[in-house]
Amino acid sequence: NHLRYCLATGEWREADIETTRIMLAIMGKEERVQFHEKELLHFPCAELQIIDRLWLENSNGKFGFSVQKRIYAEISGGEINRNGWDEFSKRVGWRDSNNINYDPEAGWIRSTTYDASAPIGHIPVLGVGDIEGYEKSIRNMGWLSQDWLLRRNMMIPLFNRMESCMESTSN
To answer: How far apart are CA 145 and CA 138, in angstroms?
Structure first.
C-alpha cells in the first residue's frame, strides 16, 4: 500500500499525511483535518498496531506511535495524562527549551522535520500542520500555538488507546 511504500522509501512527510488519511478513512471521516478524542480512544486496535509496526520497521525503531508513547510514559512516570506534555514536546523536537519552535521570519511555528535527522519519536504527528490549507488557516487566525495544542489533544488519547490495545492483547 501507499503508506508502506512511503515509509520504505523514507518519504516521511507523505507517510505522515498518508497515516492521517488511513486513520480518517477507518473512522469514516475522510474530509476532516482533526481527530476528536473519543474517536481516538476507540480506534481499532488491529489497525493502530499495523500502522505503528510499519513506522517502527521502516525507521529502525526511531519513529512510531509506540515510540512516542514510551517516551511520554518515561517522562510522566508511567501515567498518560497532560502532566508530561511540555517535556515530551521538547524531547521529540516539537518545542524548544524556551517556547514553541517559532520561526519569526515565517511568522509561524517551525515545520515538522521530515527526515532521518529528526529526534526519536518526532513523527508521525497525524499530519497536523501539514495538510493543505491547515497551516494557512491557523496562521490567519493568529493561533501560533494551535499546532502544539492540537498535537497534545490528539496524541494523549492515542497513547491511551495504544495502552488499552496492549493490555487487551496481553490478556
So the answer is: 9
Which residues on adjacent β-strands are paired with residue 108?
A: 103
Cis peptide before 124 (omega within 30 of 0): yes
Give the H/E segment covering residue 103. strand 102-103
Spatial separation of the C-alpha atoms in residues 4 and 7, rounded to whole Å? 5
Residue 34: the pLDDT is 65
Q: Is residue 39 very low, low, confident or very high in pLDDT (cuts 50, 70, 90)? A: confident
pLDDT tens per residue across span 136-162: 444 444 444 455 566 777 888 899 999
How many Cα atoms are found within 13 Å in the side-chain-facing hemisphere of 8? 5
- Count Cα atoms within 13 angstroms, Cβ side, for 152: 18
Distances (CA, A) of 58 to 8, 63, 100: 6, 8, 28
Judge contact between 115 and 104, C-beta under 8 A: no
